[in-house]
Amino acid sequence: MKLLTHNMLTSKCVKGVNVGYPLTINASDVRVADVDFNPDFISRLIPKIDWPVLYNAAESLGHVEDLPKETPVNYENNEEFLKKAHRALLEVEVVHGELVCPESGRKFPINNGIPNMLLNEDEV
Amino acid sequence: MSRPEHLAPPEIFYNETEAKKYTQNSRIIEIQEQMSERAIELLLLPEDKQSLILDIGCGSGLSGGVLDENGHYWVGMDISTAMLDVALEREVEGDLLLADMGEGCPFKAGAFDGAISISALQWLCNADKSHHKPVQRLYKFFSTLYACLSRSARAVLQFYPENGEQMELVTTQAMKAGFYGGVVVDYPNSTKAKKFFLVLMTGGNMPLPKGLGTEGESSGIDYSRREKIKRQRGKPLKSRREWILEKKERRRRQGKEVRPDSKYTGRKRSGRF
Ligand SMILES: C[S@@+](CC[C@H](N)C(=O)[O-])C[C@H]1O[C@@H](n2cnc3c(N)ncnc32)[C@H](O)[C@@H]1O
């Protein structure tokens, strides 16, 4: 699971959960993959990203490095910043671990990089 | 023709053996890729830009591969672990989730620029478990899909409706969830080539494009192409071809399997097949 996906993911499909965001990450295995950098794509992604959630997620995985706490102004032309955002969003991956719903405490296991979001009958 | 969705629930039907068989069959690959290409065309994404796309029922990543080829980034969800395992083996570029579309799309509002689903939606019309109610599952799916799309984004879902009622059932639930649109039928007069695409729009009602191989398709104004040109805003930093070639070269260096470059690489395909 990439942090881009984590930034979009909620547990609101669980019965009784309202927002279900952000999910807490407990990671036991994290890796950094090599992904092509497309500055235009990253810069159009930024408005959709909840930046503090991305920052905290990267920090909790020990991969915050020099990611800024806030998005700089005119980031569209700031290649250095876009590269850092790219790394956090697309290159850092959780391979094993779990996601935890902030409202219900429900855990979603992550195996081989794939979060298991399947619900039980009584959760639908 | 027997319908797999009558045989077993998807997570059982698409077991390890079936997932491998499915992904290695060149006929299946060709059909899935053609339909994916057409679905992407019907999404009317801004040209020459990389978009973030949700692939629902992504399976082993055949449809996702076509999203890659078109330069998009995708997140896929599927209910079958065996299919997702094959996707991992194939080192697909998309990020994967194990999830049941009938339980809803688990994403925050406005997350995706578009969504495709190739040959998965008909599975939702069946009650595989005693507590499954197709109408409710379809509604849950469409309403949460609607929510996770960005403004004016589209969803295009190719599916195999069993009969007119099923088409009606699916369309009604989609409209109830807030979507505009309807079903585009390609090659309606050919039993073999006939394909159904549910084209869903979020940003207001616009005329549906004509199906391929229908009367008036060639003589009428090609609405989708005209709108695409209208929606085109500015050029990307790199040309689409340049960026795809670079990406392929990188994958080759990593020792991954890459389709050979050709004069068609990175060219806007007509999507006609
Ligand atoms: C015919 S395959 C198509 C896979 C891929 N889209 C392609 O074009 O190759 C259908 C896929 O839909 C998935 N599917 C069926 N019902 C589903 C559900 N309720 N939620 C998520 N995926 C489902 C199946 O597991 C299977 O991988």
From TrEMBL, chain A:
<dbReference type="GO" id="GO:0046982">
    <property type="term" value="F:protein heterodimerization activity"/>
</dbReference>
<dbReference type="GO" id="GO:0005654">
    <property type="term" value="C:nucleoplasm"/>
</dbReference>
<keyword id="KW-0963">Cytoplasm</keyword>
<dbReference type="InterPro" id="IPR005651">
    <property type="entry name" value="Trm112-like"/>
</dbReference>
<protein>
    <recommendedName>
        <fullName>Multifunctional methyltransferase subunit TRM112-like protein</fullName>
    </recommendedName>
</protein>
<dbReference type="GO" id="GO:0070476">
    <property type="term" value="P:rRNA (guanine-N7)-methylation"/>
</dbReference>
<comment type="similarity">
    <text>Belongs to the TRM112 family.</text>
</comment>
<dbReference type="GO" id="GO:0048471">
    <property type="term" value="C:perinuclear region of cytoplasm"/>
</dbReference>
<dbReference type="InterPro" id="IPR039127">
    <property type="entry name" value="Trm112"/>
</dbReference>
<dbReference type="GO" id="GO:0030488">
    <property type="term" value="P:tRNA methylation"/>
</dbReference>
<keyword id="KW-0539">Nucleus</keyword>
<dbReference type="Pfam" id="PF03966">
    <property type="entry name" value="Trm112p"/>
</dbReference>
Automatic annotation (TrEMBL), chain B:
<comment type="similarity">
    <text>Belongs to the class I-like SAM-binding methyltransferase superfamily. BUD23/WBSCR22 family.</text>
</comment>
<dbReference type="Pfam" id="PF12589">
    <property type="entry name" value="WBS_methylT"/>
</dbReference>
<comment type="function">
    <text>S-adenosyl-L-methionine-dependent methyltransferase that specifically methylates the N(7) position of a guanine in 18S rRNA. Requires the methyltransferase adapter protein TRM112 for full rRNA methyltransferase activity. Involved in the pre-rRNA processing steps leading to small-subunit rRNA production independently of its RNA-modifying catalytic activity. Important for biogenesis end export of the 40S ribosomal subunit independent on its methyltransferase activity. Locus-specific steroid receptor coactivator.</text>
</comment>
<dbReference type="GO" id="GO:0070476">
    <property type="term" value="P:rRNA (guanine-N7)-methylation"/>
</dbReference>
<feature type="compositionally biased region" description="Basic residues">
    <location>
        <begin position="227"/>
        <end position="238"/>
    </location>
</feature>
<keyword id="KW-0539">Nucleus</keyword>
<comment type="subunit">
    <text>Heterodimer with TRMT112; this heterodimerization is necessary for the metabolic stability and activity of the catalytic subunit BUD23. Interacts with GRIP1.</text>
</comment>
<keyword id="KW-0808">Transferase</keyword>
<dbReference type="InterPro" id="IPR013216">
    <property type="entry name" value="Methyltransf_11"/>
</dbReference>
<dbReference type="GO" id="GO:0016435">
    <property type="term" value="F:rRNA (guanine) methyltransferase activity"/>
</dbReference>
<dbReference type="Pfam" id="PF08241">
    <property type="entry name" value="Methyltransf_11"/>
</dbReference>
<feature type="compositionally biased region" description="Basic and acidic residues">
    <location>
        <begin position="239"/>
        <end position="248"/>
    </location>
</feature>
<dbReference type="GO" id="GO:0005737">
    <property type="term" value="C:cytoplasm"/>
</dbReference>
<feature type="domain" description="18S rRNA (guanine(1575)-N(7))-methyltransferase Bud23 C-terminal">
    <location>
        <begin position="200"/>
        <end position="270"/>
    </location>
</feature>
<keyword id="KW-0949">S-adenosyl-L-methionine</keyword>
<dbReference type="InterPro" id="IPR039769">
    <property type="entry name" value="Bud23-like"/>
</dbReference>
<keyword id="KW-0963">Cytoplasm</keyword>
<keyword id="KW-0489">Methyltransferase</keyword>
<feature type="domain" description="Methyltransferase type 11">
    <location>
        <begin position="54"/>
        <end position="129"/>
    </location>
</feature>
<protein>
    <recommendedName>
        <fullName>18S rRNA (guanine-N(7))-methyltransferase</fullName>
    </recommendedName>
</protein>
<dbReference type="InterPro" id="IPR022238">
    <property type="entry name" value="Bud23_C"/>
</dbReference>
<dbReference type="GO" id="GO:0005730">
    <property type="term" value="C:nucleolus"/>
</dbReference>
